[in-house]
Amino acid sequence: MCHMSACAFLSYVSIVFMKLVPLQPIKSRPQFLKIATLSVVFCGSVVGGNISLRYLPVSFNQAVGATTPFFTALFAYFMTFKREAWVTYAALVPVVAGVVIASGGEPGFHWFGFIMCLSATAARAFKSVLQGILLSSEGYNSFIFISSSSALPHFFVHFSAYRFCFVPPLF
């Protein structure tokens, strides 16, 4: 939460007062929806990661998070039809295989936690690909993304933190 607040505040200061990049106001509803989608995906990855920590050890969570490059390559291929070199895909095989092996031997393994962790990892990768598409095709600058996409997740993170910290789980 502090990270998002600091990003929003410092990017606003950098744009408005320091004038590092020109101010790009949101001009249309489709532009707002694209930024809102990016914010919701980011928030989903944070919430999914936090939920998974309730059910899985941190070390296993980090191991599953190491598969983010695999999901990034997968989403980049399906969304932009951009193929990486075969060496890139070959380098991802041991990482994914290691997570599969670790999943079988993890004493604190929990299916729901694993699914949430995998979902959070995939959401992080999807956010990276979506952000790359928006930065290259729409002409946005990264400061606008930081300031705009930090405000909306505040609401979602507050709500989800309350829901999952103070309300008993359904399972």
TrEMBL record:
Domain of life per record:
Eukaryota
Q: Which Pfam families match?
A: TPT
Subcellular location per UniProt equals: Membrane
The principal localisation class reads: membrane
Q: What is this protein called?
A: Sugar phosphate transporter domain-containing protein
What InterPro entries does the record tag this protein with? EmrE-like (IPR037185), Sugar_P_trans_dom (IPR004853), TPT_transporter (IPR050186)
- List residues of the Sugar phosphate transporter domain: 12-151
